[in-house]
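Hi there,

I know you've been waiting on this one. I reran it after we fixed the sequence typo, so this is the corrected version. Both the input and the resulting structure follow.
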Amino acid sequence: MRTGFTLAILALSSLTLLPVGIAMIAGRWVPRWWREKPEAARSVGVAYLLIYLVMLANGVPRVLDATEGVGLVFSTAGMVLMAGAMVMFAVAGLKGRRRG
C-alpha cells in the first residue's frame, strides 16, 4: 500500500511540478502577476524543479525497497535539495521586489 501511495505522489508531481518548472525556466509560461518580472518566475521554476527532485530522492528508494542506509543517503540529499529550493524562493522574492 505504501508503494502505491508513493507512486501516486510521484506521478502527481510529475504531472504538476515538472512541466510548470520547465515552462517557467524556459520563459514559455509566466503567471500573470509576474509578467513584469520574468527573472523572478525563472527562479521559482528552478525551485519547483528542486522540489520535484526532492520527491524523487525520497520516493524512488521507497518504491525500490532500498536498504535503510540508501534511504538515509537519499533523504539527506532531499534535505539539501529542499534547502536549495528555499534559497531559490528567497531569490525570487528579492528579484520580485526590485523596482525596474
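Quick highlight: The chain has a mean pLDDT of 90.

Best,
R. S.
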